[in-house]
């Protein structure tokens, strides 16, 4: 049975339930009419629909996995043809729902849907084709789904724009605005007569996905500026790319400004330390997100996390060199591991100390345990004790983390070692 989308959204805001129970990246289904002629479909990536005199206008279209379910949900609300689809950005969970509507249009003799997106999106799709193997691997690791295969065929937009664009469908106006945030091709959409804001992934009911250790550059400073601009609109309903609607102008403004403040704080602290000549290591262990913001029900670090955002600010302004001269032209990891194992008295001595630190459970000790367990396994990859230790350490690290990204990477490492033991 589908959830009551608006009731759940209200309970999440009030803290009567939380994002650990209703994770923004976990599809639960359900459709809600959030304004006159405006529907919201909760999915892996959400879909917003506007009913117009010429047919439907969609902001985002969903993932390949959920496309038929989204189509079914919308068809329970409206039987009108899809006239126009706006892609908020090119991530694959947002752009694979058009095909089902095109099949339907061909069956019924309707015109083919028209797709609009930012001008950077075609290059993104080209890059996805080029790096399909790599994207398969990192998404398998991130989500813990070994069967993921990255697609190589995309529905490219029919029309692109650069900064701002006005789309009118059957008397309904959608104002498209470009800003760099999670991606370089991101669009947020304002429907002024409905006072509905479709913000894409600028807001996702979690710490912004502005760090993501396995993906390309994010833009936290520009992201925050876009959020401030959206907050000035007076929107009465905000429909995010993930998570649930935010209803009420005060809530919308608060959510946008709080998210902007979080990003601004991480950005500004990082830049200030960079300007003082600090290394990345010092910055990572000095910058702290404002605790009161991380306590907000819509800013919990359940997907990305502040430490990763700091790394992306460094990468944006400082490049890949972390300030440590030993890492500029490093020895191979395995060679360093072998040398340290020799100094320590063998790989098993490293593994033993990793286990001792792992048993402590303190965050600082778990971080050290990760280093030592990895060194032990690199120094003696065929040693069962080293691999068992590595598996145990990264399983413990996974259990201690809240963000899906950290849990995915640590879980993957543990699985690697478990596979060597089988």
List the helices and strands and how they pair.
Layout: H1 5-14, E1 31-35, E2 38-41, E3 47-52, E4 55-59, H2 67-75, E5 82-86, H3 98-108, E6 114-118, H4 121-130, H5 132-143, E7 159-161, E8 164-169, E9 172-178, E10 187-191, E11 196-200, H6 220-231, E12 237-240, E13 246-247, H7 249-275, H8 280-284, H9 291-294, H10 306-318, H11 333-344, H12 347-360, H13 363-379, H14 384-400, H15 404-421
Parallel strand pairs: 4-5, 5-6, 6-7, 11-12
Antiparallel strand pairs: 1-2, 2-3, 3-4, 8-9, 9-10, 10-11, 12-13
Provide a compact summary of the structure.
This protein is an alpha/beta fold. Helices cover 45% and strands 15% of the residues. The longest helix is centred in the middle third of the chain and has 27 residues, at 249-275.
Please tell me about this protein's structure:
With 422 residues, the protein is an alpha/beta fold. The chain has three domains: 5-260, Metallo-beta-lactamase domain (Metallo-beta-lactamase, Chain A, 4-Layer Sandwich); 264-318, no CATH class; 331-421, Serine Threonine Protein Phosphatase 5, Tetratricopeptide repeat (Alpha Horseshoe), CATH 1.25.40.880. Helices cover 45% and strands 15% of the residues. The protein has helices at residues 5-14, 67-75, 98-108, 121-130, 132-143, 220-231, 249-275, 280-284, 291-294, 306-318, 333-344, 347-360, 363-379, 384-400, 404-421; strands at 31-35, 38-41, 47-52, 55-59, 82-86, 114-118, 159-161, 164-169, 172-178, 187-191, 196-200, 237-240, 246-247. The protein has a seven-stranded mixed beta sheet, covered by helices on one side. Helix 12 runs antiparallel to helix 13 (363-379) and helix 14 runs antiparallel to helix 15. The longest helix has 27 residues, at 249-275. It is elongated, with a radius of gyration of 23 Å. The mean pLDDT is 97.
